[in-house]
Amino acid sequence: MIIVQIGYKNSEKSKNAPLVAGKKSDMPKLFMVKYLCRLYSGPCVELRKKRYLWGEYFDEGIAMQFNDVVGHAPLKERLLRAVGDGRVPHAQLFVGARGTGNLALALAYVQYLMCTNRTELDSCGECPACRKAAKLVHPDIHLVFPVGATERAETEGAERDDRASDILAHWRQAVLENPYLGEAEWYGVLDMKNKQGMISTVTASEVIKTLSYKPYEGAYKVMLIWLPERMHVAAANKLLKIVEEPPERTVFVMVSENPSLLLKTITSRTQQVMVPPIDAASIAAALEQRHGLPAAHAADISRMASGSFSRALALAETQDGELFERYVQLMRSCYANRYLDLLAWAEDAARMGREEVKRFVAYAIDLTRNCLMLNLGLPELSFMAGQEQQFGNKFAPFITQQNVFRIVGELSRLNEHIAQNANAGIVFTDFVLKLSQHIGPR
Ligand SMILES: [Zn+2]
């Protein structure tokens, strides 16, 4: 089996792990490649040969049918019935936390609206309208989303049209690769650091202009606004009238992660579709069927995912027996003050690459936090399952409000020192000796 390494250009290559390199904005694509390999061939066998799978998938458009959206059976039924009965609201607001699939659901709904051959259960997935919708290139589906200040300046500048279609292409790609895309991930694609995006008044004016034309092909014209909470106040005000009374056969589909930031004037003009957390059984089934995870592992992850498919995928990525083993060995040796074991642990850990250390630290902090929750008698806030749960039950009494900050502090410092290229051997030795002082019977 060949392990696929996903990394930026120029990052460390390991001999037997082909590096799928790319720009930061390529990261979602690279993860998709990894998932596809898993989907098609179990372990990632010779990624390079399988690489075409990505292109193939992209050309076909990614699944945007209701059937492909994880969970939400009652909600799907409601949406299907409304269209079937000819009760298509002129403005809907899909509201759901990141990872619940609010965008995926909205896209499936839009495709269903456009499909020329739909059944009572789903869009057909094959008619020209479906194909275009699935690639997000249907001429009657208009897409609006927040962008950063740089993009806004560029798209409102001299070469605005080219640049705008460029950014649209980025968004399409990001969504097609991950219909569970969240706001922060999108800003990551744009390399916006910690800045926040916005939907400008210029965009709002374009929306109004676009909607003044008749639909090209479809029975409907759809204006999909992702994250309307990022609309500039003036932009939102500009749109009020058209949202309230859109032209005939025009439908607004808004998708919000944080409706509390939306202007009341907008929410009051839309029909809300509340997208709840996904039920654990649906997440487990999807992990098993689409990502080839063993049933027990999928069930464990689904319980920890708190209804978010994004979190489930992230857990599937990082949940790794090796990290767990490393953590358990460390904590046991600390508890028993076995210094020789601790030094051996440090020596071994010092061989980890920088990214691995980062993952380990994130994992260790997470597990420590979960143990604290158990200790405080809050098992409902502790997301552990399987072997972690078993370990946590025994270890939780030793993670208390008194030592948890010291433990997390040592872990965070470890990460910082390694990130600063300090000598790994010295850093890890220092780390285990300090950590052991905070854990175990005193
Ligand atoms: Zn169709």
Bound molecules: zinc ion
Morphology: elongated
CATH topology of the largest domain: Rossmann fold
Main sheet, how many strands, which sense, barrel? 5 strands, parallel
Highest CATH level, the class of the largest domain: Alpha Beta
Q: How many runs of DSSP E, i.e. beta strands?
A: 7
Full CATH superfamily name of the largest domain: P-loop containing nucleotide triphosphate hydrolases
| Overall domain count | 3
Helix tally?
A: 21
Protein described:
α11 (233-244) links the parallel β5 (221-226) and β6. The protein has three domains: 1-60, no CATH class; 66-274, P-loop containing nucleotide triphosphate hydrolases (Rossmann fold, 3-Layer(aba) Sandwich); 321-436, Zinc Finger, Delta Prime, domain 3 (Up-down Bundle), CATH 1.20.272. It contains 21 helices and seven strands. The chain has 442 residues and is α/β, with parallel strands linked by helices. α5 (102-114) runs antiparallel to α6, α10 (201-210) runs parallel beside α11 (233-244) and α20 (404-419) runs antiparallel to α21. Strands 4-5-6-3-7 form a five-stranded parallel beta sheet, with helices on both faces. Mean pLDDT is 81; it is low at 1-61. The chain has helices at residues 27-41, 47-50, 52-60, 73-84, 102-114, 128-134, 149-155, 160-177, 183-189, 201-210, 233-244, 264-267, 280-291, 295-304, 309-318, 321-335, 339-349, 354-375, 386-395, 404-419, 424-436; strands at residues 5-8, 19-22, 91-95, 141-144, 221-226, 250-256, 271-274.
